[in-house]
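Structure in, sequence out. Go:
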Protein backbone atom coordinates (compact mmCIF):
# COMPACT_ATOMS: atom_id res chain seq x y z
CA UNK A 1 0.00 0.00 0.00
CA UNK A 2 1.32 3.45 -0.97
CA UNK A 3 0.09 6.27 1.22
CA UNK A 4 0.55 10.02 0.82
CA UNK A 5 0.32 11.97 4.08
CA UNK A 6 -0.42 15.66 3.52
CA UNK A 7 0.80 17.91 6.32
CA UNK A 8 0.38 21.69 6.64
CA UNK A 9 3.31 23.95 5.72
CA UNK A 10 3.04 26.53 8.50
CA UNK A 11 5.70 24.74 10.53
CA UNK A 12 8.15 21.89 10.11
CA UNK A 13 6.81 18.32 10.39
CA UNK A 14 7.29 17.39 13.20
CA UNK A 15 7.32 20.91 14.66
CA UNK A 16 10.22 22.34 16.63
CA UNK A 17 7.92 23.76 19.31
CA UNK A 18 4.39 24.60 18.11
CA UNK A 19 2.36 22.97 15.32
CA UNK A 20 -0.22 20.41 16.54
CA UNK A 21 -1.48 19.46 13.06
CA UNK A 22 2.09 18.97 11.85
CA UNK A 23 2.81 16.84 14.91
CA UNK A 24 -0.11 14.53 14.27
CA UNK A 25 0.70 14.29 10.55
CA UNK A 26 4.21 13.23 11.55
CA UNK A 27 2.96 10.69 14.07
CA UNK A 28 0.60 9.20 11.49
CA UNK A 29 3.35 8.95 8.87
CA UNK A 30 5.97 7.46 11.20
CA UNK A 31 3.44 5.11 12.79
CA UNK A 32 2.44 3.78 9.36
CA UNK A 33 6.07 3.34 8.34
CA UNK A 34 6.62 1.30 11.50
CA UNK A 35 3.78 -0.94 10.29
CA UNK A 36 5.59 -1.50 6.99
CA UNK A 37 3.57 0.93 4.86
CA UNK A 38 5.19 2.85 1.98
CA UNK A 39 4.65 6.47 3.04
CA UNK A 40 5.43 9.74 1.28
CA UNK A 41 5.14 12.79 3.50
CA UNK A 42 4.21 16.06 1.79
CA UNK A 43 5.55 18.78 4.07
CA UNK A 44 8.23 21.48 4.33
CA UNK A 45 11.69 20.66 3.01
CA UNK A 46 13.24 20.68 6.49
CA UNK A 47 10.76 18.07 7.74
CA UNK A 48 12.00 14.80 9.20
CA UNK A 49 10.64 11.39 8.22
CA UNK A 50 11.76 7.80 7.86
CA UNK A 51 9.74 7.69 4.63
CA UNK A 52 9.96 9.71 1.43
CA UNK A 53 9.66 13.49 1.60
CA UNK A 54 8.07 15.76 -1.01
CA UNK A 55 8.24 19.55 -0.61
CA UNK A 56 7.81 22.80 -2.50
CA UNK A 57 9.41 25.02 0.18
CA UNK A 58 12.47 24.83 2.39
CA UNK A 59 10.73 26.04 5.56
CA UNK A 60 7.22 26.85 6.78
CA UNK A 61 5.64 30.25 6.29
CA UNK A 62 5.40 30.82 10.05
CA UNK A 63 9.17 30.37 10.32
CA UNK A 64 9.99 32.39 7.20
CA UNK A 65 7.54 35.28 6.99
CA UNK A 66 8.88 36.39 3.59
CA UNK A 67 6.67 33.69 2.06
CA UNK A 68 3.01 34.19 1.19
CA UNK A 69 0.97 31.60 3.07
CA UNK A 70 -1.82 31.21 0.51
CA UNK A 71 0.59 30.90 -2.41
CA UNK A 72 2.64 28.32 -0.54
CA UNK A 73 -0.46 26.32 0.41
CA UNK A 74 -1.70 26.24 -3.20
CA UNK A 75 1.68 25.11 -4.52
CA UNK A 76 1.96 22.51 -1.78
CA UNK A 77 -1.48 20.95 -2.22
CA UNK A 78 -1.32 20.98 -6.02
CA UNK A 79 2.09 19.27 -5.87
CA UNK A 80 0.44 16.28 -4.22
CA UNK A 81 -2.72 16.28 -6.30
CA UNK A 82 -0.79 16.31 -9.56
CA UNK A 83 0.90 13.09 -8.35
CA UNK A 84 -2.25 11.53 -6.90
CA UNK A 85 -2.12 8.55 -9.26
CA UNK A 86 1.08 7.34 -7.60
CA UNK A 87 -0.76 6.52 -4.38
CA UNK A 88 -3.41 4.08 -3.21
CA UNK A 89 -4.79 6.60 -0.71
CA UNK A 90 -4.18 10.19 0.34
CA UNK A 91 -4.43 11.17 4.01
CA UNK A 92 -5.29 14.84 4.26
CA UNK A 93 -4.29 16.71 7.42
CA UNK A 94 -4.69 20.09 5.73
CA UNK A 95 -8.29 21.10 6.45
CA UNK A 96 -10.86 21.69 3.68
CA UNK A 97 -8.90 23.05 0.71
CA UNK A 98 -7.60 19.67 -0.59
CA UNK A 99 -11.20 18.47 -0.81
CA UNK A 100 -11.73 20.78 -3.78
CA UNK A 101 -9.40 18.53 -5.81
CA UNK A 102 -11.10 15.28 -4.84
CA UNK A 103 -13.54 15.29 -7.78
CA UNK A 104 -10.61 15.60 -10.18
CA UNK A 105 -8.59 12.60 -8.97
CA UNK A 106 -9.30 8.88 -8.69
CA UNK A 107 -7.25 8.28 -5.53
CA UNK A 108 -9.44 8.07 -2.38
CA UNK A 109 -8.99 10.96 0.05
CA UNK A 110 -9.37 10.48 3.80
CA UNK A 111 -9.48 13.70 5.81
CA UNK A 112 -8.76 14.09 9.50
CA UNK A 113 -10.76 17.11 10.62
CA UNK A 114 -8.55 18.75 13.24
CA UNK A 115 -11.24 21.16 14.33
CA UNK A 116 -13.29 23.86 12.59
CA UNK A 117 -11.67 27.27 12.31
CA UNK A 118 -15.11 28.69 11.57
CA UNK A 119 -18.63 27.39 10.79
CA UNK A 120 -18.22 29.12 7.43
CA UNK A 121 -15.92 26.34 6.16
CA UNK A 122 -18.54 23.60 6.67
CA UNK A 123 -20.19 24.08 3.22
CA UNK A 124 -16.97 22.80 1.60
CA UNK A 125 -17.05 19.68 3.75
CA UNK A 126 -20.76 19.25 3.03
CA UNK A 127 -20.18 19.40 -0.72
CA UNK A 128 -17.88 16.36 -0.49
CA UNK A 129 -19.84 14.41 2.13
CA UNK A 130 -20.42 11.48 -0.25
CA UNK A 131 -17.03 11.55 -1.94
CA UNK A 132 -14.76 12.14 1.05
CA UNK A 133 -14.03 10.03 4.11
CA UNK A 134 -14.07 12.15 7.28
CA UNK A 135 -12.44 11.29 10.59
CA UNK A 136 -13.03 13.29 13.77
CA UNK A 137 -10.39 13.56 16.50
CA UNK A 138 -13.04 13.40 19.22
CA UNK A 139 -16.74 12.62 19.34
CA UNK A 140 -17.32 16.10 20.73
CA UNK A 141 -15.84 17.75 17.66
CA UNK A 142 -18.39 16.67 15.10
CA UNK A 143 -20.75 18.68 12.92
CA UNK A 144 -24.27 17.32 12.59
CA UNK A 145 -24.12 18.29 8.91
CA UNK A 146 -21.26 15.94 8.07
CA UNK A 147 -20.92 12.19 7.66
CA UNK A 148 -18.03 10.53 9.50
CA UNK A 149 -16.21 7.29 8.93
CA UNK A 150 -14.85 7.10 12.48
CA UNK A 151 -13.28 8.92 15.41
CA UNK A 152 -9.56 8.37 15.85
CA UNK A 153 -7.93 10.04 18.84
CA UNK A 154 -4.65 11.85 18.33
CA UNK A 155 -1.70 9.62 19.14
CA UNK A 156 1.57 10.56 20.85
CA UNK A 157 4.98 9.05 20.43
CA UNK A 158 5.15 7.53 23.91
CA UNK A 159 8.95 7.20 23.64
CA UNK A 160 9.16 11.01 23.79
CA UNK A 161 7.69 11.00 27.29
CA UNK A 162 8.62 9.54 30.63
CA UNK A 163 6.57 8.45 33.63
CA UNK A 164 7.26 10.49 36.78
CA UNK A 165 6.21 8.67 39.91
CA UNK A 166 6.33 11.82 42.03
CA UNK A 167 6.07 15.48 41.09
CA UNK A 168 8.86 17.95 41.75
CA UNK A 169 9.30 18.87 45.41
CA UNK A 170 8.15 22.44 44.68
CA UNK A 171 4.77 21.02 43.62
CA UNK A 172 4.22 23.68 40.98
CA UNK A 173 1.13 23.89 38.83
CA UNK A 174 1.69 24.06 35.08
CA UNK A 175 -0.03 25.90 32.24
CA UNK A 176 1.16 24.45 28.94
CA UNK A 177 -0.22 25.90 25.72
CA UNK A 178 -0.78 28.95 23.58
CA UNK A 179 -1.03 32.27 25.41
CA UNK A 180 -4.51 33.08 24.17
CA UNK A 181 -7.94 33.77 25.76
CA UNK A 182 -9.30 30.45 24.38
CA UNK A 183 -6.74 28.48 26.37
CA UNK A 184 -7.36 30.27 29.67
CA UNK A 185 -3.94 31.58 30.72
CA UNK A 186 -5.50 34.27 32.91
CA UNK A 187 -7.80 31.72 34.56
CA UNK A 188 -4.80 29.48 35.28
CA UNK A 189 -3.10 32.41 37.02
CA UNK A 190 -6.20 33.00 39.14
CA UNK A 191 -6.41 29.32 40.08
CA UNK A 192 -2.77 29.28 41.15
CA UNK A 193 -3.12 32.48 43.18
CA UNK A 194 -6.19 31.22 45.00
CA UNK A 195 -4.50 27.85 45.59
CA UNK A 196 -1.40 29.64 46.89
CA UNK A 197 0.80 27.57 44.60
CA UNK A 198 3.56 28.40 42.17
CA UNK A 199 2.57 28.44 38.48
CA UNK A 200 4.82 27.89 35.49
CA UNK A 201 3.45 29.13 32.16
CA UNK A 202 4.90 27.57 29.01
CA UNK A 203 3.80 28.30 25.44
CA UNK A 204 4.04 30.67 22.51
CA UNK A 205 2.43 34.10 22.83
CA UNK A 206 -0.31 34.01 20.22
CA UNK A 207 -2.20 37.09 21.40
CA UNK A 208 0.19 39.92 22.32
CA UNK A 209 -2.49 42.21 23.78
CA UNK A 210 -3.87 39.42 25.95
CA UNK A 211 -0.37 38.65 27.22
CA UNK A 212 0.35 42.32 28.05
CA UNK A 213 -2.99 42.91 29.77
CA UNK A 214 -3.89 39.59 31.41
CA UNK A 215 -0.60 37.78 31.97
CA UNK A 216 2.44 40.05 32.18
CA UNK A 217 1.16 42.25 35.06
CA UNK A 218 0.85 39.16 37.29
CA UNK A 219 4.28 37.67 36.64
CA UNK A 220 6.39 37.22 39.75
CA UNK A 221 8.54 34.67 41.50
CA UNK A 222 5.36 32.62 41.99
CA UNK A 223 3.82 33.17 38.54
CA UNK A 224 6.56 32.59 35.99
CA UNK A 225 6.46 32.68 32.19
CA UNK A 226 9.22 30.46 30.82
CA UNK A 227 8.54 30.78 27.07
CA UNK A 228 7.76 27.92 24.73
CA UNK A 229 8.91 24.47 25.76
CA UNK A 230 10.40 22.32 23.04
CA UNK A 231 10.61 18.53 23.03
CA UNK A 232 13.85 18.57 25.00
CA UNK A 233 12.34 19.92 28.22
CA UNK A 234 8.61 19.26 27.72
CA UNK A 235 8.56 15.92 29.51
CA UNK A 236 10.43 17.28 32.54
CA UNK A 237 8.04 20.22 32.84
CA UNK A 238 4.97 18.01 32.49
CA UNK A 239 6.25 15.13 34.61
CA UNK A 240 7.41 17.25 37.54
CA UNK A 241 4.19 19.27 37.75
CA UNK A 242 1.76 18.72 40.59
CA UNK A 243 -1.07 19.16 38.09
CA UNK A 244 -1.70 20.60 34.63
CA UNK A 245 -4.23 23.43 34.53
CA UNK A 246 -6.34 23.50 31.37
CA UNK A 247 -9.11 26.08 31.97
CA UNK A 248 -10.23 26.44 28.35
CA UNK A 249 -12.97 28.82 27.25
CA UNK A 250 -13.80 27.08 23.97
CA UNK A 251 -14.90 23.62 22.92
CA UNK A 252 -11.45 22.22 22.25
CA UNK A 253 -11.38 19.40 19.67
CA UNK A 254 -8.66 17.44 21.48
CA UNK A 255 -5.95 19.02 23.67
CA UNK A 256 -2.51 17.50 23.12
CA UNK A 257 -1.01 18.79 26.36
CA UNK A 258 -3.74 17.01 28.35
CA UNK A 259 -2.77 13.63 26.92
CA UNK A 260 0.94 14.46 27.23
CA UNK A 261 0.63 15.37 30.91
CA UNK A 262 -1.24 12.18 31.78
CA UNK A 263 1.30 10.14 29.85
CA UNK A 264 3.92 11.54 32.25
CA UNK A 265 1.69 10.63 35.18
CA UNK A 266 0.50 14.17 35.86
CA UNK A 267 -3.20 14.71 36.60
CA UNK A 268 -5.14 17.39 34.72
CA UNK A 269 -7.65 19.93 35.99
CA UNK A 270 -9.70 21.10 33.00
CA UNK A 271 -12.82 23.10 32.38
CA UNK A 272 -15.50 20.65 31.28
CA UNK A 273 -15.81 21.67 27.64
CA UNK A 274 -15.33 20.10 24.22
CA UNK A 275 -13.38 16.85 24.22
CA UNK A 276 -12.25 17.05 27.84
CA UNK A 277 -14.69 14.33 29.09
CA UNK A 278 -13.23 11.98 26.45
CA UNK A 279 -9.62 12.68 27.42
CA UNK A 280 -9.94 12.80 31.21
CA UNK A 281 -11.49 10.20 33.49
CA UNK A 282 -13.03 12.47 36.11
CA UNK A 283 -11.67 11.82 39.63
CA UNK A 284 -9.38 9.09 38.23
CA UNK A 285 -6.90 10.89 35.95
CA UNK A 286 -7.85 14.43 36.92
CA UNK A 287 -10.89 16.62 37.47
CA UNK A 288 -13.49 18.15 35.16
CA UNK A 289 -14.64 21.46 36.63
CA UNK A 290 -16.89 24.32 35.57
CA UNK A 291 -15.20 27.37 37.04
CA UNK A 292 -12.16 28.74 38.85
CA UNK A 293 -13.44 28.01 42.36
CA UNK A 294 -14.11 24.36 41.50
CA UNK A 295 -10.61 24.18 40.03
CA UNK A 296 -9.13 25.49 43.28
CA UNK A 297 -10.99 22.78 45.19
CA UNK A 298 -9.67 20.22 42.71
CA UNK A 299 -6.09 21.33 43.35
CA UNK A 300 -6.58 20.33 47.00
CA UNK A 301 -7.84 16.92 45.86
CA UNK A 302 -5.01 16.11 43.44
CA UNK A 303 -3.32 13.93 46.04
CA UNK A 304 -6.18 11.42 45.62
CA UNK A 305 -5.22 10.79 41.97
CA UNK A 306 -3.05 7.77 41.17
CA UNK A 307 -0.29 8.88 38.80
CA UNK A 308 0.13 5.32 37.50
CA UNK A 309 -3.54 5.36 36.46
CA UNK A 310 -2.94 8.60 34.55
CA UNK A 311 -0.05 7.07 32.63
CA UNK A 312 -1.83 3.77 31.93
CA UNK A 313 -4.96 5.51 30.66
CA UNK A 314 -3.06 7.85 28.31
CA UNK A 315 -0.74 5.12 26.99
CA UNK A 316 -3.67 2.84 26.17
CA UNK A 317 -5.78 5.51 24.43
CA UNK A 318 -3.49 8.14 22.96
CA UNK A 319 -0.42 6.41 21.50
CA UNK A 320 1.01 6.85 18.02
CA UNK A 321 0.96 3.09 17.49
CA UNK A 322 -2.76 2.81 18.27
CA UNK A 323 -3.57 5.79 16.08
CA UNK A 324 -1.58 4.41 13.13
CA UNK A 325 -3.21 0.99 13.47
CA UNK A 326 -6.66 2.58 13.62
CA UNK A 327 -5.98 4.60 10.46
CA UNK A 328 -4.55 1.60 8.62
CA UNK A 329 -7.79 -0.26 9.39
CA UNK A 330 -9.75 2.64 7.88
CA UNK A 331 -7.57 2.68 4.75
CA UNK A 332 -8.26 -1.02 4.22
CA UNK A 333 -11.97 -0.41 4.75
CA UNK A 334 -11.98 2.35 2.13
CA UNK A 335 -9.96 0.33 -0.38
CA UNK A 336 -11.86 -2.93 0.04
CA UNK A 337 -14.01 -3.81 -3.00
Amino acid sequence: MKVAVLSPVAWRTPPRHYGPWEQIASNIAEGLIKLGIDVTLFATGDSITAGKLESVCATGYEEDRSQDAKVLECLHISNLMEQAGRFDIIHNNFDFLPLTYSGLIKTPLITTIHGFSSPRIIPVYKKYNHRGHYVSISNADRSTELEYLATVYNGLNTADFEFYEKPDSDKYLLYFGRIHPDKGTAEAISIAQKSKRKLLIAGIIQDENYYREKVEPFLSAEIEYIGHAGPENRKQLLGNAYALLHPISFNEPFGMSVAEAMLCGTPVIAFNRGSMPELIRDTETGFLVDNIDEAVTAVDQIKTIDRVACHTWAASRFSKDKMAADYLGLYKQILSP
